[in-house]
Amino acid sequence: MKLRSKSTLLLAMSLILAGTLAGCSSKQAELSETGKPAASAAAKLNPVTLKIMFPGDPPAGWSEVKAEMENRLAGSLNVKLNVVFIPWADVLQKRQVALSSAEDYDLIWDNNPYQNIAAGLYEPLDSLIDKYGPEIKSNRSPQLMESNKVNSKLYAVPLEVNFIRPWTFVIRKDIREKLGVAPIKSYDDLIKFMYTVKEKAPDITPYIPNGAEHIGLRLANLFDANANIQPVVNYAGLYTKGNDGKVYNIFDNMDPAIMKNFEQNHKLYKDGITAKDAITLKNAEFPKGKAAVTTFFDFGVNLNTRSSLEKAVPGAAAEAFSLYDPSMKLFSTFKAGNFIAVPVISKNKERAVQFINWLNQKDNYDLLAYGIKGKNWEESGEGLYKPIKENSYSGIPFAWGWNSKLDRIDASLSEDVIKLNKWQRDSANFKADILAGFTFDPSPVSNEIAQLNIANKELFEPIILGVLEPKDGLAKFKDKAYANVKKIQAEYQKQLDASLASKKK
């Protein structure tokens, strides 16, 4: 990916130079060969407060965990933390405002950093990680580190524990048992359960999917994993299949599995199974007791969902059903779903990378992810932990430290869910997708993407969610979006072809 213009490049270079000079003006302590502060380094390091942007709300118990983090940091990196939590609904806009106005953040969570990389807003990290980040590298597979580079440079630390983008159906176990329905073993079982809920428990919505992402092309792919049908993320109507290096659009090349999925979703909506306001409702309704079935990323039922549901609905219980199976040999691009980046404007780049490295040390990661040992959680075997139910802590490692080597699995999950989690964290279980290592530069078609995003919200997401009848909805979507989809497809294919050709040299 290239920076968009010479002026942007000059701006980026000047910002980088300013940050470097600022870093030089406050001399850093010498580091040992491991990249950690030497024994006497803590006393020499000037005190620094790192300003960090995170999505969502602070977890319960955050102030106590933050205090313990700063207590440990005082004896090593001499760092205090100014963590700014931005509500999910506002994080995209406020992140862009902060970056464009050169607000003094040192670390920023980003789930789609490529436009900000193209604009020269994030610092290249390779040399900083080589010097200060041995644990950043050692706790991530080579595939993950290499596949998330742009033009052979790493601009943001990939935060990921999975080599696929897993998701699962989460079900009200207590309702299933009350209605006399056997444990869910197939997608057909799940559909029958939702219809039973509609008939026999009319006071609860049978199904509230968490937006269109789970139940669109991802669902279609799981009925035939060998087809490798994958959405081209962020570009509605484009997809890849068969690992053949080609990009398809749903207007000229509608795969039958995709159309079948759209029709099934529409039937669920028309029959009153899917919530009437599915476009706006999300899986946050499930722990409030509003739905019998929803979808979540990850396998199993996370601790926060279980706890919230049990508090909201006495006697309620949740269980998970997944279409994934460890016998599958799925393709992976090894792309991360979350990143932590250092803005070029930061005056504390070295310390920011040292801090991320500190988070990638086992005891510190445990604190970040699970809270205070003995109070919030306890050991439960290799790679496992047991939350202390009365005082559990739902951390936010996905936003600043996630990695598959240190992340633990909740031992209270069922054996099959633990098995799925272990399977998805081992890169050897997946085949390399032909798109592995390829990063699309959206800048040549930025106007078309902006227009497509509008059509996506207005028409394509309602088609996927079943709100619109598929044939009629697709005709309207094509009328509004076809020209933009074709231009984006052509540019994407052009860049992909060039990337594949360069690998053959």
Automatic annotation (TrEMBL):
Entries under SUPFAM superfamilies matching the protein: Periplasmic binding protein-like II (SSF53850)
PROSITE patterns: PROKAR_LIPOPROTEIN
Keywords: Signal
Secretion signal, residue range per the UniProt entry: 1-22
Pfam families: DUF3502 (PF12010)
Domain DUF3502 residues, every copy: 435-498
Entry keyword Repressor: no
PANTHER family for the chain: ABC TRANSPORTER SOLUTE BINDING PROTEIN-SUGAR TRANSPORT, ARABINOSE-BINDING PROTEIN-RELATED
The protein's name: Extracellular solute-binding protein
